[in-house]
UniProtKB/TrEMBL annotation:
Coiled coil: none annotated. The lineage of its organism: Bacteria, Pseudomonadati, Pseudomonadota, Alphaproteobacteria, Rhodobacterales. GO terms for molecular function: DNA-binding transcription factor activity; transcription cis-regulatory region binding. It comes from Roseovarius aestuarii. This is HTH-type transcriptional regulator GntR. InterPro entries: HTH_LacI, Lambda_DNA-bd_dom_sf, Peripla_BP/Lac1_sug-bd_dom, Peripla_BP_I. The keyword Transferase does not apply. Residues 5-59 form the HTH lacI-type domain. Keywords: DNA-binding, Transcription, Transcription regulation. Gene3D superfamilies: 3.40.50.2300, lambda repressor-like DNA-binding domains (1.10.260.40). Residues 312-367 are annotated as: Disordered.
């Protein structure tokens, strides 16, 4: 059986000392271009691979970063993770990815597990950055970290969208189309501080533009009966003509439920989402939404963690008002004339009121 190639073998083949080989492979300390070439040629010829275990013992680092997000089913998180992973990989770090499924207890457990694995840093999206026990565990140990999508509390770093300003933009879009009564639909705020901030901004925007305070529908994280919930919501708010939904996946599910109920989008009900996922441009009607750049946000959060580890200046973040844009779509239009006069907006015949077992729609939990 062939013996594994050692760093001493590389040093002998390159005609230099072990310290010189280590310096070249670790990228630490000065070395000439000629020496680096000799070492790399020897590594390639011998098939030498650095032992991560040995390197970790020598440097007291694991070259791993914990990445914590609620879900990968939503393309927004998948794109953000890809951006972070590519940045870490280019710097010689591996990413350990875990999903919390929007569960606060799971969030604490997975973060503690990553802490036990002695990761060198964290990029994380938590349920509520102001109260997350998992985040507090990271803070108390002073592990380099950066939040992703969460608004940053005091003394924290985060790469996120200006949720409040984005929600104001949505309120203006509804106003420009002539809507007078609208609603907001999201996962329960305890599971997503992003949804809560968007609602707060939307309430402020509606007040600013002369729209009645939006009706609120919060959905439990295990709710699948969106159609039934939407029907009850619209019956409680019969003059409602539009809904701002806290993410695009949930917005697309809302459009589907509206159709099950016999409603036309946007003729009977306008829908606006949040995130700008590509599939929103491929459906009919196309989804009006707030567009973000999750891959850029993930990469920025990763660069911030690396800057803390290396003691460098953190990367500059985009201006808040440039962190998003509004994309017009076919799901937003002026309300029908009879609805603007305050008449009942939607009636549901028995044929449009399917049994609960047929009305269940699997939801992607709100970001």
């Amino acid at each position: 059986m062939r013996q594994p190639v050692t760093i001493k073998d590389v040093a002998q083949a390159a005609g230099c000392g072990v310290a010189s080989v280590s310096r070249v492979l670790n990228g630490t300390g000065p070395s000439s271009a000629e020496l680096r070439k000799r070492v790399r040629d020897a590594v390639d010829e011998l098939g030498f691979e650095f032992s991560e275990i040995g390197r970790s013992l020598q440097s007291s680092t694991t070259r791993t970063i914990g990445c914590v997000v609620p879900s990968l089913a939503n393309p927004v998180f998948a794109d953000a993770v890809q951006g972070a992973q590519e940045t870490f990989q280019a710097a010689g770090y591996q990413t350990l990815l875990v999903c919390t499924n929007y569960d606060t207890e799971s969030e604490v457990q997975v973060i503690r597990t990553l802490l036990a694995k002695q990761v060198d840093g964290f990029v994380l999206t938590v349920s509520d950055a102001a109260s997350s026990d998992g985040l507090k565990s990271v803070q108390v140990r002073e592990i380099p970290h950066c939040l992703l999508f969460n608004a940053a509390p005091e003394n924290e770093r985060s790469w996120s969208v200006d949720d409040r300003a984005a929600a104001l933009t949505v309120a203006q879009a509804f106003k420009d189309e002539g809507h007078k009564q609208v609603g907001f639909l999201a996962l329960k705020f305890k599971s997503s501080d992003r949804a809560r901030l968007r609602y707060q901004g939307f309430v402020e925007g509606c007040a600013q533009y002369g729209i009645k305070e939006p009706a609120l529908l919060e959905i439990d994280d295990d709710s699948e009966n969106l159609t039934t919930l939407l029907q009850a919501f619209l019956e409680r708010n019969p003059t409602l003509t539009g809904i701002f939904v806290s993410n695009d996946f949930l917005a697309l599910a809302t459009i589907r439920s509206a159709r099950v109920l016999g409603l036309n989008v946007p003729a009977d009900l306008s829908i606006v989402g949040f995130d700008g996922i590509e599939v929103g441009t491929m459906v009919e009607p196309s989804l009006a939404t707030i567009v973000t750049d999750p891959k850029m946000l993930g990469s920025g959060a990763a660069e911030t963690v690396l800057s803390i580890i290396n003691g460098n200046r953190p990367p500059k973040q985009p201006e808040p008002d440039l962190s998003f844009s509004f994309r017009a779509g076919g799901s937003l239009a002026p309300p029908a004339a009879e609805r603007t006069d305050g008449e009942k907006g939607a009636t549901f015949s028995p044929s449009n009121n399917p049994p609960k077992k047929n009305a269940k729609i699997q939801l992607e939990r709100s970001k």
